[in-house]
Specification:
Largest interface: A-B, 48 and 48 residues
Strand content of chain A: under 5%
Order of helices and strands of chain A: HHH
Number of helices of chain A: 3
Number of strands of chain A: 0
Shape of chain A: elongated
Largest sheet of chain A: none
Radius of gyration of chain A: 17 Å
Structural class of chain A: mainly alpha
Distance between the termini of chain A: 31 Å
Oligomer: homotetramer
């Protein structure tokens, strides 16, 4: 079983996700302090953008490692490509 | 100064955001346990969708309260509408 | 029966849509001439952005006219707001 | 110089794009006939979704052909992957 491609940047992903967790807690504080709706919405858009950054980073490594390895060794290449395209489609649909 | 429109559903927003915070921590755990990239990506798409649900809920109340009040009293109606449209645009661009 | 809010900028919308029609024909030409896939994808993203511009323009006028009128006269205000929010949600989901 | 990967489904893409062109002309007719704003917005969302379908089809073939070939022959593999990821990012940002 191969290791996930993102291992090379594992710590980088964790740092980004901890920051996003902090931003989501910040959103709760904004709601709790009854901050202006539009400011909360701006902050929601910013957290969404940060999550998409994480997704792009994961996809980058997934294509460069898991998918590229499958193509090179010609093992499951088609299935891996379909799976990666499915992941892109789910990201696009949100 | 009027209160934010989302006060009527404040607890509902907080519940959703706490669940999203839990999902973001779940993402960290997935990365930490070196789970399969595509499964992590699927979960990122799901958190993004949950955040958009919060955004739609906030926008709903903002239009029904702050913006509708501004229109009814004809105070700042144009500015409030422009501001709300700006918020929609920022959500669309992510 | 009120007229659609976008009448004030009807010609502007038609100009944008004619340009988008030209861009879609340009995409057909690119495929026909077997242009490089990534260049076609870049152009698809640009047409999508142009369509979102049309959507934002229509939504702007819809909120400022149809929805604001409904709120002011208190006729169907809630239904109009729900309908507009549904339209925003459909745009977000694409 | 390799041929674009989408050649295998060239006619399929052209058929979809001609249908999208027809939908964009339909949008012009809706504006011209002063149809209800929300109905126009619903149709804009539908055209956007159709364009994303074309994008996903092109990306699918690009990854399976151009990018997979580059990986297999180890020629420009990294550059091709970066380029494809850039295309995904542009689609996500719209």
């Amino acid at each position: 079983m191969t290791q996930p491609g993102y291992l090379t940047r594992k710590e980088d992903h964790l740092v980004r996700l901890r920051r996003i967790e902090g931003q989501v807690r910040g959103l709760q504080r904004m709601i709790d302090e009854e901050r202006y709706c539009v400011d909360v919405l701006t902050q929601v858009a910013s957290v969404t953008k940060a999550l998409q950054g994480v997704a792009m980073g994961l996809l980058d490594e997934h294509l460069r490692h898991c998918v590229a390895d499958a193509v090179r060794t010609d093992e499951d290449a088609d299935a891996k490509l379909s799976e990666a395209l499915g992941a892109v489609e789910r990201l696009l649909r949100t």
